[in-house]
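Narrative of activities, Objective 1.

The group set out to show that a structural description can be obtained from nothing but a protein's sequence at a throughput compatible with the screening campaign. Below is one input-output pair from the validation batch, recorded exactly as produced.
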Amino acid sequence: MLATASHYNPVGTVHGGFAATLLDSACATAIHTTLHAGQAYTSLEIKVNYLRTITEDTGLVHVHGWVTKSGSRAGFAEADVRDADGRVLATASSTCAIFATC
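Output recorded for this entry:
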């Protein structure tokens, strides 16, 4: 995703919610890949660490999520946001509830 001035907070940098949204989505969809037919998930909690400032000049950022443990009732995942040079901008760990959709 590309951050623009429309994502800025009053301090003049990209609002933390920008990275948090990307990280939450990456963690949750990583958990999604472990589910069986008839199962669903929802985020229970997410912890975000902001390591570097994101501005318009940061350019395109990429998010990557991976499962650390997935069970029948809960899944745990991590993710990071990186710039085009591979520098880590933010990280997250998340817990998702796993439940039957029927």
